[in-house]
Design brief:
Blueprint lengths: L1 E8 L9 H14 L3 E5 L8 H13 L4 E5 L10 H6 L3 H7 L6 E3 L3 E6 L14 H12 L6 E6 L18 H11 L3 E4 L6 E4 L19 E4 L15 E10 L2 E12 L4 E11 L3
């Protein structure tokens, strides 16, 4: 039986957005009709009020009943040092509300966002012990039918060795604790590289390294949804994720949709079915 669909987009970088890509994504979203849209950070290019205003207009234009927005490192002022030190999230919160780590829960999904940005870090991220423990506790409260998702801006899992510097501090501790607590998917952005990959066993807290995990965990990364800041020629992309219950167990289907400049549309570029733990 299919569950509702989640739209995962990231790194819109408003201020560098491409109008034709924005319009194509709006049209495609009207066809998808997802239940939830998750924007995993770097909403703007330079955290300017007009860039946040454009981002709000875009998110409001999507026919999606619910949305979660998470700040990225670009959503903290870079050159305005007094504001960066004293009120780093003021413009973000003016646009998207006070909560920096919103949570969504319905019968199909539990989606927990984690703010990995820090005012004292220009680019790199961090997950602190309180975040690790509070997210683990929330995961343990999930109902049996929910797909359990944790969303960060900085990638918890990378496939390119050069991207290891982009992983947040304490990411291994976070992955191990959240896997033990029951997470199914970890979603991220930041590096503008879309991929789906299994999370290699790191062992549970208090066990020997490499000990098998009780659950399968998958990392799902999004590229840049709308910006000119594409990586290695990879087109703008988003992920559409749906859950299913099949006779052999729970699965998630992840579709990666990329912008086709010739046609001016988003087209499905990859599809993968992920086996989840019961």
């Amino acid at each position: 039986m299919p569950m509702t669909r989640l739209l995962h987009l990231s790194d819109t970088h408003f201020g560098t957005e491409q109008p034709e890509v924005v319009a194509a994504l709006q049209r495609q979203c009207a066809a998808w009709r997802p239940t939830l849209a998750v924007l995993s950070g770097d909403v703007t290019q330079r955290a300017r009020p007009e860039q946040f205003e454009a981002a709000v207009r875009f998110m409001d234009s999507l026919p999606v009943p619910a949305r979660l927005v998470l700040p990225g490192n670009h959503d903290i002022p870079l050159f305005d040092l007094p504001r960066r030190l004293m009120r780093p999230y003021a413009s973000y919160q003016s646009a998207f509300g006070y909560a920096l780590e919103p949570v969504y829960s319905d019968g199909d999904w539990l989606v927990i966002t984690v703010n990995t940005t820090r005012w004292y870090r220009h680019k790199n991220g961090e997950v602190d012990p309180l975040q690790i423990s509070s997210v683990a506790e929330r995961l343990r409260q999930a109902t049996p039918g929910q797909v359990r998702v944790v969303v960060t801006h900085h990638p918890l899992v990378v496939i390119d060795e050069a991207d290891q510097v982009n992983q947040p501090r304490h990411h291994q501790l976070a992955l191990a604790a959240w896997a033990e607590a029951g997470v199914d998917l970890v979603l991220g952005g930041h590096i503008h590289l879309p991929y789906v990959t299994p999370v290699e066993p790191l062992g549970e807290p208090g066990t020997a390294p490499g000990a098998p995990r009780p659950r399968r965990v998958w990392a799902v990364q999004a590229g840049t949804a709308t910006s000119t800041r594409i990586r290695e020629g990879i087109p703008n992309s988003v992920n559409l994720i749906s859950g299913h219950v099949r006779p052999y167990g729970r699965v998630c289907q992840v579709e990666t949709w990329q912008f086709d400049a010739a046609g001016g549309v988003f087209a499905m570029a990859a599809q993968r079915t992920l086996a989840l733990s019961d």
